[in-house]
Write a structure and sequence with these properties.
- The protein has 6 helices and 7 strands, in the order βαβαβαββαααββ.
- The chain is of the alpha+beta class.
- The strands form 2 sheets. Strands 1-3-5-4-2 form a 5-stranded antiparallel sheet, sandwiched between helices.
- Helix 1 crosses helix 2 and helix 3 packs across helix 4.
- The longest helix has 17 residues.
- The two termini are 29 Å apart.
């Protein structure tokens, strides 16, 4: 099992993506998605305008306080294809609820959508980053906690750890997702080279792999410290 966390500004846009709005004309058994749970939100997908109503309901807690950046939380939980036979809707739902509880993402509305367009079982969770009390749910940005929670759930339920970006084949990906994985794999390869121990050498090594690295520094000229790195790579559309 592996979890990926992101957040954005549009509840409606996220729900459109999760529920594949372009598949509305297909019968339910032909779609690659299905809602397997909604917490605090009643969702009837055969009602006209249901996405707009559902997105508004999940967004509602954010209206109780000052506006925050990227109030829409999105988590994808992926499982190994070897665990596919075990991944019934009920079992996946149990894992998803356990994950949310351990991450501290509680007292907030969310919807869990299962996708069937990949070989590996996976689901998506869209939720409000503001809870019912108007408080910001901070653990959503805690990637270390996410990694620990996934490892704990994987071990206790005797699951197989899902593929991370280092084990993915970029050739099977498209667009920005392909670029993201290629950047992670290239940066990891360079960082594992012990001969690369200076910023300029690191940057040049990435440039040879088609990746531009911009360093953001803090401090005075004689005591500059690398604060963060921005990576850039051309998006492959085909």
């Amino acid at each position: 099992m592996i979890g990926k966390i992101s957040h954005g500004n549009s509840f409606g846009g996220c729900l459109d993506y999760l529920t594949r709005v372009k598949q509305d004309k297909l019968p339910p058994d032909k779609r690659v998605w299905s809602i397997i749970d909604s917490d605090g939100v009643r969702i009837e997908t055969d009602t006209e305008g249901w996405r707009k109503m559902a997105a508004s309901d999940i967004k509602r807690p954010t209206l109780t306080r000052n506006k925050i950046k990227d109030p829409c939380g999105h988590i994808s939980l992926g499982f190994s294809p070897k665990d596919a036979l075990r991944m019934t809707d009920d079992f996946m739902l149990k894992i998803a609820h356990e994950y949310m509880e351990k991450m501290g993402i509680v007292d907030t509305p969310y919807v869990i959508v299962r996708h069937t367009d990949k070989k590996h079982p996976h689901c998506h969770i869209m939720f409000s980053r503001v809870d019912y009390n108007g408080k910001i749910i901070k653990p959503v940005t805690n990637f270390n906690r996410n990694r620990a929670v996934c490892a704990d759930i994987t071990k206790r339920h005797n699951l197989i750890m899902g593929n991370d970006s280092l084990s993915l084949d970029p050739e099977k990906l498209r667009g920005s997702e392909r670029s993201r994985v290629e950047i992670i794999q290239a940066a990891t390869e360079v960082l594992n080279d012990r001969s690369i121990n200076e910023w300029k050498i690191f940057r040049d090594a990435l440039a040879q792999r088609g990746i531009v690295a911009y360093g953001l520094f803090s401090g005075e000229d004689n005591d500059k410290k690398l604060k963060s790195i921005i990576f850039k790579k051309a998006v492959i559309l085909s």
